[in-house]
Amino acid sequence: xxxxxxxxxxxxxxxxxxxxxxxxxxxxxxxxxxxxxxxxxxxxxxxxxxxxxxxxxxxxxxxxxxxxxxxxxxxxxxxxxxxxxxxxxxxxxxxxxxxxxxxxxxxxxxxxxxxxxxxxxxxxxxxxxxxxxxxxxxxxxxxxxxxxxxxxxxxxxxxxxxxxxxxxxxxxxxxxxxxxxxx
Length: 183
Fold this sequence. Notes:
The structure is a single chain. By secondary structure, this protein is of the alpha/beta class. It has helices at residues 25-36, 45-51, 53-59, 65-76, 101-110, 121-129; strands at 4-11, 15-16, 38-44, 79-82, 94-96, 115-118, 135-141, 149-150, 161-168, 174-180. Helices cover 31% and strands 28% of the residues. It starts with a strand and ends with a strand.
């Protein structure tokens, strides 16, 4: 059965800020591999608009193999965007959600295919509240940002996770692979 995998980068002090982390070749390869194991990625509007950057890299490659390969994979994977303000998407592999996130996940899980990836902080929070995440991949970077958007904002219920695995990068970043325990 398809898994719903929430994957996100964060700082040591718990903030989700892509400008605070150091994305190197090893990290780009990790996320390229993750995207290759999925066939759908769900984003909120803000993260989707940040990810649109990768379209320009496909059109004008950087010459850095890991960045350019990541851009191609990001460009190809189907994206579902949850937004109250966007009227359309400019990316041919993206579409606006026409159901609630709970309904969308339910419909996707009934289909055959690869994993369903969640790449937005706001969607991760919603899915944690709905108990719809099968695996959580939290990449913690050895950086203290001091401020930003806290990953676990507005969560009031206790959620216990079981550590499945870890992966350490040369940069000192560590991915923690967790699954929620059934309570």
